[in-house]
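Continuing the batch. This is chain 6 of the set; chains 1 through 5 are on the previous pages. Same settings as before, nothing changed between runs. Recording input and output for traceability.
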Amino acid sequence: MTAEVLAPRRTHRAPETPTAATPAAGKRRDTFLDNVRAISLVRVIVWHTLASAIISWVVASMPAMFFIGGSLLAHSLDRRSSGTVLRARLRRLLIPFWVFGGVVLTVLAVVHRMSPGADTKLSVGALVPWIFPLADPHGPPWEAGWATTPLWYLRCYLWLMLLTPLMRAAQRRLGLKVLLVPMAGVFIVDYLNRTADVAPAGWDSVKWYAGDICTYSFFWMLGFSHRDGMISQLNQRARLEWAAVAGVSAFIWVKVVGVQGMVVNNSYPLLLFMGIAWLGVFLAAERWIGNLSLNAIAGPIIRWLSRRSMTVYLWHPIAIVGAYWIRAHLVPDLPKPMVLPIVGILTVVFCVLFGRAEDYAAGRPAQWWPGRDDPPGTAQLFTKLSGWLRRSMSSTQALGLGSVIAVVVVAFVLPSGAGGVPEKAKTDAPAAGAALALPPAPSGKPDVVDFSNTTEEAPAAEPEPVAAEAAGADNSLNGKVLATVDAWRAKKKVDGVQVGLSLQDGSQVVLASGAKPDGGALEAEAAYPVTSVTKTMTASIILQLVEEGKISLEDKLPKLNAVPNLPYAGKVTIRQILNHTAGIKPYDTSKAYQAAKSQPLTAVTALRLIVDEPLEWTPGTQVGYSNSGYLTLGLLAEQLTGKTYEQLLAERIFGPAGMTESRLDQTPTAGWAGFSAGGVVSTVKDQMAWADALYRRKTILKPKWLAEMLSVDNKFSTGLGAFPTCPCSLKDGKPVYSAIGHNGGQATIQYAPAENLVIVLNLTESMWTAELTRDDVAELIVSLRKDVASA
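Output for chain 6:
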């Protein structure tokens, strides 16, 4: 539901001087509808380019586009037979789509020929929707959905066209009351999506189809009523009241039910409410919006978009890919909003190249630019070519020939290639609004400790608790710590370390040793990505929900609404995900990751990479670090609470711990999902506050659940979002650690219970390399504990 597109432009040509019109204006063009379509289309491009959740609340583009489509189709059906109208509409829809598909399939054929593999191969069965899109057209993983995801609209539009005779008859008989049917369908679909145990078998494969048809048939039939003049009976105040009621309903829905990521498109009921609200606003301003076409600047733009709306819809996602490639490779410091002009320019280029197909589909003279005829030679060539095609074969024969050619291409040309695509050529489509940045270094493996070879004695490094002698962290302790870290850095060849120590009396040491890799100053209080330390926060949120009775540690993972086809639902327990024994495939080791690693990932897109991956082992029998598991926990927390993960962090973690400088970084990053597995950015002081609140003051979890988190008395010696740090031993048959916490790619937080000490470190390089390991970091932790003990 995140991809938005526009409806095909209407059939009638614009008059020489456009004027505002009402549905009763006969053959004159309804400029109100044209202008709403242009506004909606601009919003679609901005949304796809910048991908900020707040944009999804500004203008409900898709409801508006289906409203326009329904109104225009009703107008055509009032003047011509349904068969004639549907043939014309199919022509206008399919011909530009076939041209687009021809280009896309050709590119995919070339890519697969140069780099054959599962990530570039398109199956023969996938060809059918490219001919007649009653199902969503799709490509191989290599294209990552940028060429195909927006095509859901053609599928929905096509279904609504085919159902129009039935819907039109019902609307004429029942009037506006007919809208209650799709409205009820919207809430039924939403209930089934959120309640996996009552959904019928096979629901996952049809739920988007059902949701789209229910939601957009409402606006489609509302467009019928607009054409029939039913809405014109409402005055401006009534239309604004309509908008206000829908807006309040949307607000209540978000507060009571919630919406993932605060994106309107992620909830059918919310999309329904916002669509009604925005249409109310548009219709209240109908005369003013209709007169936009008279503006000297807006008028030409609107008329251009009316003549090229299908071409813009089909090609603007490709323009976005090109714009972000330009940004990443030529102007990496370009502010994100400045990508929009580049997208606009590239979209215009595609319209010049492929816009003639839209003219041909509409039965107009082909023009390289709307209103400007082709040069005589070009126009003559296209006229002769189209005339020869019409004389040589019927439409049915042409469709059959095209199908045969496409089948041959997919079945024989694609699998026959050899060679390889240069690595740069595989750097395909960034997600909207994304910078092609390298991901932060993730944790490489679980911090598993083996207690089996230790002796039955207390650990040597576990002295009696020691209090600091001074009321604060004095200069002598600062000096010792700095000298210890400097010596460790020199030995391990590490450029810089940020250090934070929180002693049991509340005093702190915060300092930086060394410099950044580029030689720049390393500030002790500078923010940094804590990466996998985020998992301590995710685990805490889940344990809070367990305490609240929203789920149990022994419950199986329920179906996730955000990734309904994730294969692990009902197979692994929440405890197994928390302690990394579930066997969920890490997304960055999946088969699909190679094609996606150059593109920014979200929790949802990362988990989609593993929907075809089985469990790596029988749950509970092995241990293996999995970022994918913690992404599922973040989405689960959102589903159980109706709040975003960002809100949960603010309310349950940052606020109670007093973390004023921490945030969830949601900047799309190539090959890295972040989110609940590693998306928090924080500071040394905030990380000390977090560890203090969690481990020492016990204000985040009640003792029972903190004990569950920190218990490593199992065959894998792993906690729930926590790992022990050695020296370790056995005491009365129980494992004893010198510290416990979590490592990230370059960061760590540790709590040493013997000294009641919190240790926070952030290195300038990863601790998961051959040159630097977590054991090296453990060595520094031991030295720092000794400094505190001797202070």
